Structures are given as structure tokens and as C-alpha cells.
From TrEMBL, chain A:
It comes from the Bacteria. Pfam families: ADH_N, ADH_zinc_N. Residues 196-265 form the Alcohol dehydrogenase-like C-terminal domain. This is Threonine dehydrogenase. The keyword GTP-binding does not apply. One of its GO terms (molecular function) is zinc ion binding. Its cofactor is Zn(2+).
From TrEMBL, chain B:
Residues 130-158 are annotated as: Disordered. It comes from Geodermatophilus dictyosporus. This is Uncharacterized protein. The lineage of its organism: Bacteria, Bacillati, Actinomycetota, Actinomycetes, Geodermatophilales.
Amino acid sequence: MRAVTWQGVNEVGVETVPDPTILNDRDVVLKVTRTTTCGSDLHLIGGYIPAMRTGDVIGHEFMGEVVEVGAEVRDRRVGDRVVVNSFIACGTCWYCRQELYSLCDNGNPNPGITEGLWGQSPGGCFGYSHAVGGFAGSHAEYVRVPYADVGTFVVPEEVSDDRALFASDAVSTGWMGADLAGTKPGDTVAVWGAGGVGQMAARAAMLLGAEQVVVIDRLPERLAQVRRHVGAEVVDYSTTDVMAELRERTGGRGPDVCIEAVGMEAHSPGVHGVYDQVKQQLRLQTDRPSAVREAILACRKGGSVFVLGVFAGPVDKFPLGAAMNKGLTLRGAQVHGQRYTPRILEHMARGELTTEHLATHVMPLEDAARGYELFKSKEDGCVRAVFLP
Amino acid sequence: MDLTQVIGRATGLAGGAGAALLQRLQHVRLPGVGQASATDDPERAARRWRAVTVLRDPADVDPAAGLPTPLAALGDRIEVRVTPAPGDRGTELAARYRHTPGPEEIGDLRAALREAKALLEVGEVLRVDPQPHGRRAATPQGAALEGAAKAAPREGVL
């Protein structure tokens, strides 16, 4: 089959690889019909997560049709049209029973790598390095899906592929941030980052009853999408003092909930940005956390900050004093998609959650290298490149 | 030794180096990574109980009824302790060698405990190989990563 592979730092290509097979009785094999780039892929491609091997198949946000079913799969049939969560979870361990699916004890066959770095191992993920299992990714004609009864969801007839695709990760990640940050009716929610995840975090906050939702970014086409498709307010951080703007909009309090949807390669104007870039390039810190810092400083006293962007290691100049003295709740997680996908598909079926606008560039799988170039450079208004295998 | 042999030798050494690096990772003492406290002496570290918590009733994990196959394979070389976990978290399944084990044996025990937990909770151990992949460049960095990934089920803080 044809598949998109990591071929070195900043090198992505399409090559012929073996077809996947059923390896466990709870597996299915899926014919991939839609698979999309995600901002977190850029960290892999850029070499910031040094656990990629040349030839690894990438991609973790996808949907498709079931074409083969393992002997112990109970709820899926050949021909089912399903959307798949990016993290691989058994559904039976204590973490899965707490609906903390990305922390599954039985989803990552390579726990030794991340236990050494972080003290504990998260679950496994499709196409996201050997640190989280080394599973082949979804940018391919076919993909093996372990624990299929837990991680695949049949898409309702009234939801199109173009909409359902993003239930896989962007919407479920955004929804998780809004939910686990404790968004309540009447809250003001600020979201850093107007990519797919940030936009969906904002939409989820609105559906959870937030009174005011503000999305912060610098790219005009993304801010325009937020206004038009999400219905939230926007702030351009390249022309506006974000802290002053948020204070003014909240009667001086600051947002009740701050959601960071940017990750380890955050851009920042002025001396902050230069500082983080230099330290990261010198390997004196692994990640650029400027959006997290700002979220902590902007948040109201006693408020909540949720880190949705992917980070890998230690960061510098972390405002722990602000977090402690302001009594903040600070949380983060990889996506517990299985917890949210059923209700997301219901919202999609009712037309309350639309995502088609995120797919600004739809192209054949063979054009994946160009798709990632557009996505990384954000040229031509690219928000997401979607591949059709 | 021609260039191909030199590269092959370097690649082989790198694979071993990757595994060795992973073995040391949990003992790294850099701010923000690893630990800040004292490190056990090797004898004490090797003798510690290693434990997983299994979301099953203690009766389902009773050694008298037979240990899961991966632990049973270690035979009388290990002793096993089963205790109820607090707060409806299931059962703590711990094991250690009756003698002071070497690094290979500790790796065997880590893998056996993880596989036993998966068998008790899920009924099968998740496999990852063989996975579809493209052309693998024969580089020392790649070999080091492959060595680390191969060793990963047997390493970590368990």
C-alpha cells in the first residue's frame, strides 16, 4: 500500500510499504477514507520528538471503513463507517474506567521510554513515535486499529465524512480542554491558538454554556474562521496587548478558564520569542511555552488553565509563583477521545458542531509532502491539509 | 574492514547503546528529568518489590489458583505478593527475586509483570510488530532508537 513516512528531520515522503494485518484479536483493519495533518505532527517532523525512525508511517487523526475484524471484536462489522480516536486504549484498566483514556496502562508497548523521562507512561498513539508505542499511522491506504470496540465509533448517516473526520482528534481534544478545565455557564473562556484544536475548544466552551469566548492568534484567515464558523470573539496578539484586552473584556478579573492550544513551538513577538527560540535551538529547553506563560498570567484568581498543546520536556521561566499565589488549577492531557466522541457525533448530527471549514486543502495522499509544506508554512490560508488515500 | 563493515559495526554498537541509554534514563539527575533524591545502591535496587496494580478482584489474581503464564515462567526464582489496592483500584500484584538479580533478570520481571497485568485486565498482550514501515536508513541514530524501542518493554521505573 502507499503511505506517508517520516524520512528525516523536515523530510516527509510517500512510499510503498507492507499492508497492515490483524495482530491481536481485538484489532480491526480499516480502509482509510480521510486522514488529516495535525499541528502536533509538526513537532515530529521538525525533530523535536527524537523517537522517530526513518520509514515510520505518520498520521493519527482519521476515519475509514472496516475491512477486516479480529476474532474478539464484538461491536464492529466489515463495512462500518467509523471515526477513530488517536490514542489507543484498552477500555478495561483503571485509567480507562475513569475515562482517562490517553493514560491507558495497556496501550503503549514501549513504556520504558516515557517512564524514564516522565515517571509514568501514557497510552499509545497512532503514528506518533516509538515513545508512544511505535504504531503505524493513518496516512496510508490501510491502518490496523487495536482495541477497536473501544476506539472506533460508527458515524451517523447524517454526518458527512468531511465533518466526522475531525471528531477523531481536533474536536475531542478541544472538547476535553473546555470540559476538564471546568467551563461553566456564565464563564469567560480565553483560548490561545486558532488552529483546529483551538477553534473546537472555543466551540465546545460555547456549547458548555460559556458567556464569552475569546480566541487569540495572529493569522487573519484563522481569526476570520473563528468569527464566521465558531461564533467566538477574536484577539490578534500581533497588534493587541492581550493581557490588557482580556482585563478590559472581563471587568478587570481575567478569564475564568484559559485554554492553551498551541504547543511546544509557540510563536511570540519581541524579546520573549527570541529568548525561547535561542534556548530551544541551543537545546537548553525542549519546548517554547510562551502561550502557557501568558495564559497563567492572564487567568483570574482561582481560575483554571488547561494545556492542550503538546509538550515534551522541561521549559524555562515557568511562572509557578503566579500559578501558586493566584490559586490556579493547572491541568493538561493528551486526548481522552473515547470519552467525548459519542456526544460530539450527536452535536455534529444536529448541526451544532461544524468542522468542514477546517479542511482548507484536500488532496490525494500522494501530495502529502506538499500538504505538510503548506500546513507548516501556513501558506495559502492552510488550516488543515486532508489526504484522500 | 571496508566502509560497509564499519557502518554495520557502528550500527550494531549503536543499537546496544540505545538499550543501555534507556536503562540509565530513570537514573538521570537533571532538573526536570528523572529524580532529585538519592539513588538506591545496586543491591537494594535489584532486591526491591516491583508492582503493578491490576483492576481485578484479589480472588482473580490469587497465586494459589495459578499465576499468569509470564510470571509462572519465572518459577521459584521469584516470590509474589498480592494485596487489595485501596479505593476500588483492584489488586496490587508485586514480585521480586529470591536472590539478587542482574539487569537481564530484572528486565524479565518487568516484562512479565506488564504482560500479566494485560492478560488479567484485557485477556491478551498488545502486539506492535510487525508494523508497516518504509525504507529504514541504516544509520547509528536509527539503530540506537531501535535498540531503545526493543528494550523498552523491559525497562522503565517498574
